[in-house]
Write a structure and sequence with these properties.
Layout lengths: L1 E4 L5 H11 L8 E4 L4 H11 L1 H9 L3 H17 L2 H12 L7 E6 L2 H18 L2 E7 L16 E4 L2 H13 L7 E3 L6 H4 L4 H10 L8 E6 L7 H14 L3 E8 L5 H7 L5 E6 L2 H14 L4 E4 L19 E4 L5 H12 L6 H12 L6 H11 L4 E3 L5 H13 L2 H5 L7 H7 L7 H17 L1
Parallel strand pairs: 1-2, 1-3, 3-4, 4-5, 5-6, 7-8, 7-10, 8-9, 10-11, 11-12
Helix pairs in contact: 2-3, 4-6, 5-6, 10-16, 14-16
């Protein structure tokens, strides 16, 4: 097995690690990262600078997306020589030539390159190659359609139908596309002890005495740090219960913020030198502490909303401003499944926050009942101060506590949890891979 990822933010690496950690039995595999460092640089520039971000989002939809995908596919397939040599080295150095090589790609760039060399490599190495593409957001962007892939895994029926439409419109080779719950790390889906689950609930109780442990993973592109700094300062000003565990990669573009964070007693700074270390430190935090809240962009981490509060990763998610079409699409996935408030409900809550409208009586019970179905909230994006006031409002009105409460799963939710909503995506992934490999071994 070979797992591939690219340094375009930390999301692709997190998904790769989740699948790698969930490999069943005594199986093992290699993790292969892209050597193209420009991918990470371009991702950071596009995410951090507003004019470039607008340009990126423009090219992610409409007719411009068609043009971009056409030429980018051509470029990727032509620039596949380095990946080819890497794969040949891996196969040639194996003590015993494998009959089947399973390649799991969590970035479309490497997926297109591997698809381009797959048949040639099979012929040269006399082995069968299965290329599996795992889409890392619920976003049906055209570039995720990889002709030559043996199977493509997506988080929703909506994305599946849209990608199938892309194949028809672009006259591309037909590929199997399968819907599976999003793969969440097995470390995050492990069950909390009753005592730790109770502690998480106590953290989110207004007027409680327990410290509120908040995870704040800094994105790979270090987007929105000014907003986060202001938000943490404002939250700390109204309550000394909050402890912000900031996980960041130490790099030139994060250095100024890191030095400012070191001066704040309510921020526990966890630093890493490399991307893989940052991902490891993030998971380590969840093993060492009971985390009550997480503040993050609605990137791949947003899918922790598929876990329940009695699991290690079942924190209440607070989402800052999305960057890129894929993050807006992730929010749409969560709204469709009622895992976060609807746009109308979100606007009403923000208005009540600004008016300092504290809920009472039947109105309070109505909103608390709604909150029992939610697993995350969108923070107001205008300023960190507004975001902090929103957290205070949700805490004081008991919404955060209700979101973390133990409850029975209704019939409608049970049906959804059997298909797109559930925290067993990694297990389902490997069950399907066992079946696929067995078919190719014949």
């Amino acid at each position: 097995m070979v797992f591939t990822y690219a340094p375009a933010g930390l999301g692709h690496l997190r998904v790769t690690d989740a699948l790698f950690d969930g490999v069943p039995g005594e199986s093992s595999g290699l993790i292969l990262g892209s050597h193209d460092k420009s991918i990470g640089w371009i991702h950071r520039m596009m995410s951090s600078y507003v004019p470039l971000r607008v340009l990126m989002e423009t090219f992610q939809q409409g007719s411009l997306e068609d043009v971009y995908c056409f030429f980018y596919r051509l470029y990727l397939r032509e620039a596949s020589q380095v990946v080819r040599e890497q794969m040949k080295t891996i196969l040639d150095q194996s003590l015993e030539k494998p009959k089947v090589v399973l390649i799991v790609a969590t970035h479309f760039g490497l997926a297109h390159q591997l698809a381009a060399i797959k048949k040639e490599l099979e012929k040269e190495e006399k082995t069968r190659i299965i290329l599996v593409v795992q889409v890392t957001d619920d976003s049906p962007q055209r570039i995720w359609y990889v002709p030559g892939a043996d199977i493509t895994m997506v988080p929703s029926e909506k994305t599946k139908l849209e990608l199938e439409k892309v194949g028809v419109e672009d006259h591309l080779e037909k590929i199997p596309i399968v819907v599976q719950p999003y793969p969440i790390s097995p470390q995050m889906t492990a069950r909390l002890t009753p005592g730790k689950y109770k502690l998480r609930q106590e953290q989110l109780k207004f007027g409680g005495k327990e410290k509120v442990e908040v995870a704040v993973p800094v994105s790979g592109a270090a987007v929105g740090l000014e907003y986060l700094m202001e938000l943490m300062d404002e939250v700390a000003a109204f309550s000394d219960r909050f402890v912000f565990n900031v996980i960041a990669k130490y790099a030139p573009y994060t250095k100024p913020y890191i030095h400012r964070m070191l001066e704040r007693p309510y921020e526990d700074l966890i630093l890493a030198d490399k991307d893989r270390e940052a991902v490891s430190r993030y998971e380590q935090l969840y093993q060492e502490k009971v985390v009550g809240l997480e503040i993050t962009k609605p990137s791949e981490q947003a899918f922790k909303v598929l876990t329940t509060p009695d699991r290690v990763g079942g924190v209440i998610m607070l989402f800052s401003k999305p960057v890129g079409r894929q993050e807006y699409d992730n929010l749409d996935f969560m709204r469709r499944h009622k895992l976060i408030p609807s746009a109308v409900e979100q606007n009403k809550m923000e208005k009540m926050t600004r008016a300092e409208d504290w809920l009472e009586g039947s109105k309070l019970e109505k909103w608390r009942k709604k909150a029992r179905n939610w697993r995350g909230l969108c923070l107001p994006w205008k300023s960190g101060k507004e975001g902090a006031l929103f957290i205070r409002w949700a805490l004081k009105n008991g919404l955060l506590y209700e979101m973390c409460a133990e409850r029975e799963v209704g019939k409608d939710e049970a049906v959804r949890r059997g298909y797109e909503v559930g925290d067993y995506g990694v297990k389902k992934f490997w069950e399907l891979m066992d079946q696929l490999v067995a078919e190719r071994m014949v």
